[in-house]
Structure formats: structure tokens, C-alpha cells
Amino acid sequence: MMSDKKKKKGSIRKIIFTGLDNSGKSDFVARLKTQNNPMNVTPEGEQYEVFGFPILIWKASDQKKLLLEKTHFFDETDILFYLIDIQDETRFDEAVDNLKAILKILTIKPLIMICFHKADTDIAQSQKVRKETENIKEQLKDALKPFEHSYTLTTIFDYTSVLGPFVFALSKLLPFSVVLDSYIIDYFDVQQLACILVLDKSGAIISKTTGVDKEGKLDLDFCQVTGMHLSELYELYDKSAMPIPNLSIKIPENSKRNPNAMVLFERIIIRNKHYYLVMLIKTPEQFESIKDTLPEFVSGLSKTIELSL
Ligand SMILES: Nc1nc2c(ncn2[C@@H]2O[C@H](COP(=O)(O)OP(=O)(O)OP(=O)(O)O)[C@@H](O)[C@H]2O)c(=O)[nH]1
Ligand SMILES: [Mg+2]
User: Fold this and answer.
1) Residue 14: CB within 6 Å of ligand 1?
2) What Cα–Cα distance (Å) separates residue 287 from each residue in 19, 105, 248?
3) How many A from CA of 245 to the centre of ligand 1?
4) Could you tell me if 36 and 155 lie in one domain?
5) Which end of the chain is least crowded, N or C, by CB within 10 Å?
6) What is residue 270's predicted lDDT score, i.e. its pLDDT?
7) For ligand 1, atom 21, which residue shows the shortest CA distance?
8) In angstroms, what is the span from residue 26 Cα to ligand 2's centroid?
9) At 165, is the secondary structure helix, strand, or coil?
10) Inter-residue contact 48 to 31 (CB < 8 Å)
């Protein structure tokens, strides 16, 4: 049963990204987005929308000003990301003090996501980073006690490392289907696709996104039946240890419906469970434009599903 904490997308009113200057906030948020929404800069910070959720970036270094002005800046905040530049040890103390100061003035209790950021792949597993993060956690332990919180290592050079904590935080507050659909709809809109469908091994629909008109309904049925057949084929070839052919379909030019369209099919394995992604693309030009972005979309999709298992 859905817990009473879990609500609709619109119930996330504010997600704040904060941390010292140069901690990587702008890059982090930019990495999450697939579309370049117009950025709105207000005295309160930079406003964005990511997967349809409202984001505010705010430099923690401005906190003295904020405290003096006693604004209601944090009111209605549901999730607070705090970035600590793990490569700048000269500012660890400052970063810790800033977070403590913020926690002190909070009258509400948002979910706190602490990101040890710039943990690039070559240093993330190092002894040095492990020691430093343990040390910082120890220093923040008491201040964070009243809050639900989580720590992660993040780097803009690994998409799933930034997407992961974002999806994780959303999943704490929203039903999983809302989070997954939001992620998929964003890509659907940007790439102007006709249909995106995720099926599980039994052919059940995990997520569906398509046009709202009659045409959209036809596209959806078409993708579902096509996806179920392709997934059977795929598993059969796989089981028989035969090389798996490319299972994408090109609809002929002279077809009455969707001439020149393409169906892209991918199998995704997450912790031994099989899922299938079916996408309907109406024109060859659109296929050209999604080719480059598809691998990252698929890796993000895998991460998003994985976090729900
Ligand atoms: N190595 C590394 N550098 C990063 C990463 N993320 C951001 N940076 C770099 O860190 C610097 C600061 O990044 P920004 O995103 O501008 O930081 P910010 O927190 O928005 O800074 P302000 O707007 O001044 O508050 C830039 O030179 C980025 O390229 C990362 O994951 N790894
Ligand atoms: Mg910035």
C-alpha cells in the first residue's frame, strides 16, 4: 500500500541544491537535465526544472546574508542537496560549518542528500577519499541526527552517479511509477518520440508514454504487441546461444500507417531481471538525433528501475 507520504509529482514543491561556491552545483544540475530550460535567475538563486520538478540552486556561501534577512527561503523545501567538493580539502571545514548553519535554521525537515562531489572515477575508491568522507560524516553526525539523510559520491563524469541520488530522493517521497514516468516523459518530449514503452518479462507494462489522441493509442498497442514478440524472439535466441540479431524494425516507406517509422528495441537486465524498452520513432531524422543520446537514456532508465527493486 502507498504510504501517506507518497504523493503526486506536483506535491514536490521545492528541491534545493546548495553548497559552497565552486562546489559544482550548476554542473550537477546541468548534467541531470536533458533539455535546456530557460534559466530564471532571481535574488533567491537560479531556478530550473528537472524532469518536471522545481529546482533552486543557491550558494551556501551567501548564508550570512540570508540569516540576516531571515527570509523564508527554505519554506516548502522537500529535498535539500548539499554538495561538498571532495577535491578541495582546504574548504572541508567551511563546507561542514555551512551545512551545520543551514540545518540549524531549518524549521521544516526536508530530506537531506549530501553529495561528496567531484569524486571522479579515478579517485572515488581511493583510501584518501574514504578517510576524508568518513571524517566529514563523523563531524556532521550530531547535526544530521534529526533529519532523514543520505550520503553519496558523485561526479559529472558518470551520469548515473548524479542521476542516482536524484532519483533516490524523489523515490523516497513519490510513488516509483511517478518518478519513472517523469524521467521517461522528459526524454519523450525532448526527442519528440511517438511512444516509449517499458515491459517486464511477462509482457506487463511498467511504463507507457505516448500521444494522448487516438493515434497515440494505436501507437501504444502497436508497440506493446511488437515489444512482446521481439522480447520472445530475443530470449529464444539468447537461450539457444545464437547471436542476437538487431531487433529494431523499419516500417516501409509505402506503409499506410507510420511510413518510414522505426521501432527500437532494447533489452535491459537489472539484477537478473529482464526488461524491454520499445520506442516508436516517426521519422529517420529523429532517429539520427536520438542515436547519440540513447545510451545515456538507457543507463539512466536502468538506474531508475534498479532503485525501485
Ligand atoms: N573534476 C570535477 N570537476 C567538476 C565536477 N563538477 C563540477 N566541476 C568543476 O567545478 C567547477 C565549479 O563548478 P560549478 O558547477 O560552476 O560550481 P557551482 O557550485 O555552481 O559554483 P558557483 O556558481 O560559483 O556557486 C567547474 O570548473 C566545474 O567544471 C566533477 O564532478 N568533477
Ligand atoms: Mg553555479
Assistant:
1) no
2) 39, 50, 12
3) 42
4) yes
5) N
6) 95
7) 22
8) 4
9) helix
10) no
